[in-house]
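INFO  loader      accepted 1 record
INFO  loader      residues=247
INFO  predictor   begin
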Amino acid sequence: MKTSYWVIVACLAANASGFADEFKPIEIKDQELAELRGRYVMPGRIISFGVVMSSTWRNASGDLIGASTSMQLQAATVKPQFYVSTIKQSGHGGVSRSGSGNVMGGAALSTSRGITQVTRAAGDGNSSTNNIAINVKEARTAPALVPSQGQALIAGQTVTGSNAAGSVAVSETSGGVQVAITAANNQGSSLQQVARGGLLQNTRLLGSSNVVDNMTQLNVVLNNNGPGAGVSDGNLSQLAALRTLGY
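INFO  predictor   done
INFO  writer      dumping tokens
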């Protein structure tokens, strides 16, 4: 009995060794990984993609300064193009006191990766909002292109605007777009940008009674009438089921 026992153990050990060699982890080079990144949607499934950004600053006197920029990309689009519109409104004529607050640090925020949302306040009665919206829907055809509004943003060029609330500058940066507001009377500043594969919304409030709004909206339309749509729909349904688990 003892001899047969060791024969069985020896056979199992040999088989286990064979399976271990077969499933041994193989190192993948960085170059091979780079070719795989971003391929989470079947080719041709995305038929429309758009970005809408807006930043506004309203001071205690009711003066408003800001800008909005948008880009819509479809199969027929030759080159992605951002269009910019500045926003200006006059207030009720009151006097905004000079901000006396001071916010230290934060230089590394402009080089952060991923999604970064920051509000730092050194005044009273301020309101700051950083919003990100991602809208994904399905359709048989791409939606009609929205007529371009505003001024085309050209590489190396900055679109500016100013009034009693401060100044706004929209420029191209690192293959993306940036909206920067400098509030008048030392009230603070706001920066919103989509660049380097990340999104940054950063507000500094040095005065009082200011209202700041930063919003970025991503719009994606998926084709539900092409080959393989059923498989992708199943994957989307599985992702939706994760909501009940808290994801």
